[in-house]
Here is the input.
Amino acid sequence: MTPPKTLTDSEVIDLLRVIARTKADTPTKPKRLRNLTMALLMLDAGLRVGEVCQLRPENVFFDGKVNFAVQIPASITKTKTERAVPLSTRLKFYLATYIDVFPLVLQWQPESFLFYSKRPSLPLTVRTVERFIQDDGYNALNRRITPHMLRHTFATRMMRMVDSRIVQQLLGHSSLSSTQIYTHPNYQDLTNAINKLNGTQKEKPDSTLENV
Here is the structure.
């Protein structure tokens, strides 16, 4: 099975910097904040792009404040199974900032979507998200980046730290075999392995090895 395409830690930083950038005209700034928050829901919480687009305010906020986790209802998941994913510190920060910039999200409840197009009752399309991830991906990394690569990156990072069954629950996989594709080592894993080897070796070879 072919390992999923992921981003390295440095590539994630470069991509997020491009997504978050502001231009000379002020109106682009709120949109950049929106795009960054959506990207982080895939990178830090492992949501599918379709799930991000269908989120409602109540899935993230309670009484105007950010919840400790994002609740993904069964109705918007691929496997029709509800799950909750705890929010990272930076994701909490950007969600709180987002709702300050887009207060209509809370004012239009229960009709509103968390990320909307022309008005809160119209959610952003998956295609819109794919387009900005692709455009910013080319600008940041000079190659094609997709929303699913962000989810893959989250899953791969989690597999290095926690049990595969925990990752299965975070991703909402119905089968553990779907999660195990993230056990494949990537280039960064291979580089880390060689770096560890380098750390066990002397800077200069022993005299007995100089002619080898």
Q: What stands out?
A: Strands lie at 61-62, 65-66, 69-72, 83-86. The domain at 9-159 is CATH 1.10.443.10 (hpI Integrase; Chain A). Residues 28-43 form the longest helix (16 residues). The chain has one domain: 9-159.
